[in-house]
């Protein structure tokens, strides 16, 4: 977009006579603008073209050239206005129809873009460009097959056009063809190694494929080549922010705003930075500068909902999150936040409906399980509530799990049969997994994998199906194929979990370390690393991770505080352990894991044995199937001479499958 891709307009512009009173000034400014634009400096070109138009406001060709420059800057509205002026001044419609269609695409009006191209076919030397714009318009309208055909036509006409390869890469990325997107980006880089647009696309794909650390040099190099490229600056800023390098992120956004003082994404990133620092007032102020531009952007909607929940505007947040869930039904974070908003608003049935798809997963987090259980209690469904609260009593496994977004299996099957596209087939396979039909899910997933080998979701579903039928190492092989395309959090957690369940813990830990090397602030991965350190009794390493998370999140996460309590206690600092256990319990008094930890530490440290036993009994009442709680009670009862109760609790612990301290429990019973 920074280079003139056709000589027709350029020659016409230079040949057009200036009719201004200051003809020489207008012509000189035009030539300076053309030189700057050809050198890849559209911002300078825009200023020079403004000078030309000031000298000759009626110069039709100058309006057309200014539109071309504005297109390169991504200003669709400005370009459209300049092209309309050019048309009124006498520029032939066909000569600029490609540019007008491009402006319509930037403005989100794909139908208008197609109408322009059909009504005023562009000249032959713009055919490749026009085909690219047609492809982008079709993609915006959701006609992906026609868009792909138009991209093929564009490349057949202009096989070395970098802009088309970049647009194709972004199109493939949007349709989840990560491998195809990488191939397109690599082709663009091969044609033009210093193309900033290609470099930014490559950085985005590297970030998806390998992680944040690997991606950052691509954006930094792009910004070095063109310090005025706002996209490169903002992609670098977003990556720096996710890496926790807040000062550098802020500096990048300020550089972007110096170039484009109304840039919505720059204000959004600054608002995210403020929200991460829990400066919600500043975050709101920054978001206000974006007007309504973020109302339909998922990231903006999510941030606005967080701020609304913080201010107590629950119903407003619920409306926004309901719409976001309909846009992204598989986004667990959004569903969890919606459940939180419904819970705080007292809408218990709605909270259950939002959270249950997450709570029913084998890797459900403690917070979701607890809120779901309490919401069920609030509607007097106590038996159901007990099941969720019981699961909340122990740390959930952190491996990824297939998400069942709901829906009747028959309906899903019909949709998959009528629309053989990947999204419908993915929903059907997930439905099969949800009802336990693993073999059939595997057959369908393998067919999808053959048809869409460049799509990570296809390999993930094969892995999910293999895991469901008890083949974790085969599942790991499928997840590894997905990881080769996109090594993101869901893929990494699934791969780690499958390796661990297959008896290859060393490989699981190596995979986790690799993921953390690229994504050092990923919360789920850090919590998993902490779990591994605790399992290996490496308390110091576990504490280092958990204290780092606490510093970022604050004293608001009962699970982190509870894990810190155990780690400090087992490291030998009973006072710190007890303090963290007390904080965790104060934060979540109905959480059985928090009650268990606080009760056990009160008992073990002789701080208050009676209160400790009472808390352990409370934990047992909330989570009667937890072997850990029964075992703690057995030891506490035995220590205070309550032998029959100690034997009963020990036997309850032994009755739980997978209880890891069976030998100690049997020895305790024998002593009693």
Automatic annotation (TrEMBL):
SMART domains for this protein: TPR (SM00028)
Signal peptide: 1-20
Keywords: Signal
Name of the protein this chain belongs to: Tetratricopeptide repeat protein
Species for this entry: Sphingomonas colocasiae
């Amino acid at each position: 977009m920074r280079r003139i891709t056709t000589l027709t307009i350029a020659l016409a512009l230079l040949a057009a006579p200036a009719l201004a009173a200051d003809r020489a000034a207008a012509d000189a400014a035009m030539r300076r603008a053309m030189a700057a634009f050809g050198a890849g400096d559209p911002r300078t070109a825009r200023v020079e073209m403004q000078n030309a138009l000031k000298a000759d406001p009626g110069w039709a060709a100058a309006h057309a050239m200014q539109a071309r420059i504005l297109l390169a800057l991504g200003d669709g509205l400005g370009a459209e206005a300049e092209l309309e002026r050019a048309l009124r001044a006498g520029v032939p419609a066909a000569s600029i129809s490609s540019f007008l269609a491009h402006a319509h695409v930037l403005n989100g009006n794909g139908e208008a873009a197609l109408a322009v191209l059909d009504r005023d076919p562009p000249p032959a030397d713009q055919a490749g460009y026009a085909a690219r714009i047609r492809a982008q318009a079709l993609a915006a309208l959701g006609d992906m097959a026609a868009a792909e055909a138009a991209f093929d036509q564009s490349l057949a006409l202009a096989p070395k056009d970098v802009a088309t390869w970049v647009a194709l890469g972004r199109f493939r990325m949007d349709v989840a063809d990560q491998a195809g997107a990488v191939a397109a980006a690599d082709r663009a880089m091969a044609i033009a190694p210093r193309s900033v647009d290609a470099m930014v696309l490559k950085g985005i794909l590297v970030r998806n494929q390998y992680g944040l650390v690997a991606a950052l040099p691509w954006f930094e190099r792009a910004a070095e080549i063109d310090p005025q490229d706002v996209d490169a600056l903002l992609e670098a800023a977003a990556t720096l922010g996710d890496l926790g390098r807040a000062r550098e992120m802020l500096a990048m956004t300020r550089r972007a705003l110096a170039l484009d003082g109304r840039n919505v994404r720059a204000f959004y990133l600054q608002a995210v930075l403020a929200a991460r620092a829990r400066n919600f007032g500043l975050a709101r102020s920054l978001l206000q500068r974006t007007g309504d531009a973020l109302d339909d952007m998922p990231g903006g909607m999510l941030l606005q909902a967080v701020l609304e929940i913080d201010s107590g505007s629950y119903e407003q947040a619920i409306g926004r999150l309901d719409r976001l869930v309909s846009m992204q039904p598989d986004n667990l974070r959004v569903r969890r936040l919606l459940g939180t908003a419904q819970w705080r608003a007292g809408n218990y049935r709605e909270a259950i409906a939002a959270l249950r798809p997450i709570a029913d997963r084998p890797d459900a987090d403690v917070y979701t399980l607890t809120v779901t259980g309490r919401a069920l209690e609030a509607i007097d469904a106590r038996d159901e509530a007990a099941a969720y609260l019981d699961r909340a009593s122990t740390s959930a496994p952190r491996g990824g799990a297939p998400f069942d977004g709901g829906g009747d299996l028959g309906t899903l099957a019909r949709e998959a049969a009528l629309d053989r596209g990947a999204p419908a087939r993915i929903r059907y396979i997930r439905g099969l997994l949800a009802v336990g039909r693993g073999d059939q899910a595997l057959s369908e997933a393998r067919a999808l994998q053959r048809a869409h080998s460049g799509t990570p979701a296809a390999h993930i579903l094969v892995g999910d199906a293999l895991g469901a039928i008890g083949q974790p190492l085969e599942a790991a092989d499928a997840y590894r194929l997905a990881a080769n395309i996109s090594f993101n959090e869901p893929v990494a957690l699934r791969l780690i979990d499958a390796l661990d369940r297959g008896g290859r813990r060393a490989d699981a830990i190596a995979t986790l370390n690799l993921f953390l090397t690229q994504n050092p602030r990923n919360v789920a991965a850090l919590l998993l690393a902490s779990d591994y350190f605790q399992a290996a009794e490496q308390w110091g390493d576990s504490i280092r991770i958990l204290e780092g998370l606490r510093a970022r999140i604050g004293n608001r996460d009962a699970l982190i505080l509870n894990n810190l309590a155990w780690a400090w206690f087992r490291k030998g600092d009973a006072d710190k352990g007890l303090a963290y256990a007390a904080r965790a319990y104060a934060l979540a008094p109905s959480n059985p894991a928090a009650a268990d930890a606080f009760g056990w530490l009160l008992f073990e440290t002789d701080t208050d044995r009676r209160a400790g036993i009472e808390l352990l009994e409370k934990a047992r009442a909330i989570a009667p199937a937890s072997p850990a709680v029964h075992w703690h009670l057995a030891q506490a009862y035995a220590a205070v001479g309550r032998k029959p109760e100690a034997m009963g609790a020990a036997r309850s612990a032994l009755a739980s499958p997978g209880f890891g301290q069976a030998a100690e429990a049997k020895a305790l019973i024998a002593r009693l």
